[in-house]
Amino acid sequence: MKIHSAEFLLSASTTKEFPAGKLPEIAFAGRSNVGKSTLINSLLNRKKLVKTSATPGKTQLINFFNINKKFYFVDLPGYGYAKVPESVRWKWQNLVETYLSERKNLKNVVLIIDCRHNPTLHDKQLLEWLEYYKRPSLIVASKIDKLNRGQVQKHLQRIKKDLSIESTPLGHSSVQYCRRDEIWKKLAFYIES
User: Fold this and answer.
1) pTM score > 0.70 for this model?
2) Category of 33 on φ-ψ map: left (φ > 0), alpha (ψ -120 to 50) or beta
């Protein structure tokens, strides 16, 4: 995919703030600090379009990015560990659930799992939830550069087994830019249809 333009559009804290119109949307979901923002930057070949942080819970709103003026990438708040008050966490969860279940423009959810770890209960629940609502998803295993070459396939197969999915997750490294083209090929179907 050739990226001509990529720009931050808005951060939404309520459903009323979601962008109007019918442009397709690809959402990025996963636990806190799994690399959602990093994956988006890597796919767009940008270093700092989406803010990244070593501190879990940095993304607290639903962030929309307009790509080529033809579709949106949507960076969702992470689930799991985050040093925020419980009331704030519930607000995120309700906003994300409403977005994922009701947003007509949403075409695919990229579920990101850290390749070094087993999928969490939250990962499994989100995948089941997406299947229940008939939301297409793509599983991407991040941070494969943190493993040696011989470990990568073993870890990808473990994730596949733990999630009970048919396809092996696509491994990705923002350092090595590997598998980026494969991810784009999978997403292109949803963006162009």
Assistant:
1) yes
2) left
